[in-house]
Amino acid sequence: MSIRIKLALWYGILLTVILILLAGIHHATLKQMLYNQKDYSLKVIASILDASIPRKGLSTLGLQKVVGRMVKDYPDIELKGIIMEVYDRSRSLIYSSSLSEGERLPLTEEMRGGSIHKDGHLVTVSVKDDTAPIRILTKPVYDQDDLLYIIQVGSSMRDIETTLDNFLLLNLLFIPTAALLVAMGGWLLTRQAFKPLGAVIRTAHSISSGDLSHRIEPSHASEEIRELASAFNQMIARLESSFQQIREFSDNVSHELRIPLSILKGQTELSLRRLRSEEEYRKVLESNLEEIQRMEKIVERLLFLSRADRGEIQLSYTAIDLNALMEQVCSQFQVLAREKNILLRSNGNGPVSWVGDEVLLRELLLNLVQNAMTYTPAGGEVLLSLEKDNGQIKISVYDTGCGIPENEITRIFDRFYQVDKSRSSQGSGLGLSICKWIAQAHQGKITVDSSVGQGSRFTVSLPLKD
After folding, report:
1. Of 53, 72, 152, 169, which one has the greatest count of Cβ atoms within 10 A?
2. pLDDT over 70 at 58, yes or no
């Protein structure tokens, strides 16, 4: 069952329950009001009759005259359908306004010998041969404390029952009709309200992994639908970005591995074309080993980043002297620096104790120095420095290399991204991505400042811990 039909049914059911409750309240209120009007009318007539009856010498003819004067003196009183009877103190009928004996009031408990309320008593009496009961007021007439007469004024309840039956019939017709109309209206409203969802559904069906460019344009939709469309568009944008990264990742991995594999294949095929000397075979094997080591390094870095993405790398925190660590890394590259005629030095400010993962932090510094050495020409300089600044420890690696174009800086930490598009630098484009992850894993960050032709400065900022 669709949500539109469910909402329409809920509208109809809810309205039906509300209308039934209201109808019940109105029915009870109307019934009480009609009873009060009937009782008030009987009391007024009984009071007028009481005031008009002489206290002595009462006769049937005299009572007829009394009733006649009542009709004349009180024209606003409706006596149609009213039966008036007067009994003496022995409960013998003296007068009845009904001409037919069959239309006289039924005997009440008071008239059967029960006690009579001094202020009068109202009672509803059912009649066997009539579907409508009769409302009867029994009122005594006293001369001081002496009971003279008993007045009974009665009226059929048929008019009240007819009014209540008509009210009930009207509700039986109105409530289902109103519920049906509201259900139909609710269905139309929900249909119109959910109409923009069709665009969302159609767009979702049109999206595939090969084309995530579609977007929803809910220009005339409600605020809620616009928010849904906006969230959907943002999700698609993230998916598009993720798919693009996956495609680039696949292309980059295949490219990075294809180069050493091609070299391995070419050198192996070349060496097999004819017999060669032991020295020539050694050179081929050494070259192949170099390419294998390069592929091994790429795979290791890919596995590291994959584990990092899955949250499987647990940091091993130990106390570290960051200055000593920086000096050690600097010493490791001194031989390479001399071979490339690069001045490599460090500028520390004494021991700096910090708590972190020494292995990962060493990897971070090794990658940064390796990157600086790769892009710094002969005669250049690479400088490592460490300082405390505004509650942070900052480790900087500065080089006088070729620099990074401004439009490339925002992507320099992306995986496989290389400023040198020719990939002749023998790098994989993964080192800086690993550096960024290690810095963030230690609640730090890594930034870069660079000018083309002047060099670059990579700065790792770590929070200073108490």
Report:
1. 152
2. no
